[in-house]
Amino acid sequence: MSDVREAVRSRYANVANQLAVFNALGSGPAGCCQADGPDCGCSGSYSADELNEIGLSESISLGCGNPTMLASLEPGQTVLDLGSGAGPDVLLSARRVSPGGHAYGIDMTDEMLRLANGNKEKAGVTNATFLRGTIENVPLPDSSVDVVISNCVINLAEDKGAVIKEAFRVLRPGGRLAVADMVELEPLDPTVKKALDAWAGCISGTIPIDAYRAALVEAGFPNPEFELHATENMPGVDGKVGSVYIRARKPEA
Question: Which residues contact 52 (CB under 8 A, 6 or more apart)?
């Protein structure tokens, strides 16, 4: 396991343990993106009605948006969440695609998988499955998914091109990618780019929108769309990052 991957795994294992305690207490930290860091401008991404559907609070989300809002899910579809964490986007998706559909989440952190399965049981959702694995090597067959979503996770991967190619592979022809992620808007200080804690915190691993677009096009997604919806300056650090919504579609046939 690379140093970056271990830093990400260790951080989110600790966060999962924190969230398990918050779940038991019935409360949690305000904000999102990081349980132990700044809110990146995405609080309020989920409506109270959505969260009530699955019996969870917004504190359970560590994302930077609400990809289920982008996906326009329909009954009967199959959905995959890359880096599903505690599972809110999988559980919301499972509700949307019922009856007849299924939602999968993939995560490499055992502590998150335990938390997600506990949340699944709490929510009473039966058409969701959480898989152990990495987003660079998805344990699903080719052309098996209608929609791929992800919430502030692709930036954590060292090889983002590999992640995007896996998303393309598992999508059926005409399938859609609907992602919330962090991007680099102004060049970050080189020291920050090398910091493992900042990488695991959704900062150092960000890439510019043009590089993200190029990776999507190279994987086979024509004309990806980017919508910037929040920005963040890090105090005392050169550079700027932001949260974007990304939409793309795999060509038919």
Answer: none
